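Standup notes
- DV: blocked on the single-chain target, sequence here:
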Amino acid sequence: MPRIKEISVSDLHRMLRKEHHFDLLDIRTPAEIERGVLPNARTLAMHLIPLKLSLFSESGKQIVIYCRTGSRSAQVCRFLNQQGINNVISLRGGVVKWASAGHPMDPKPLEVIA
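- DV (later): unblocked, structure below
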């Protein structure tokens, strides 16, 4: 099975500071999201992803997907890759690693995708 694409917290932080050619998608639960999101992130409940495949396939951008620790985002990227969607990248270590590196969080997402 091919490996999924992953990005480190430091690489994502660098990309956020200088590029805006990608989307950031938080797939955590509403309770987790209430504690804050990465800057400029949109949110989409993990269980809705199979119903929203067009969001991924129609996006011309890379999409960085993250969760609390990186395990759910890796699972989602694997699922999307199996659907032929390859513009997705999992954040290794998730929000836990992001916060422990001292990077900023926003109180609210840019958009909640329902």
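- Follow-up: The chain has one domain: 6-109.
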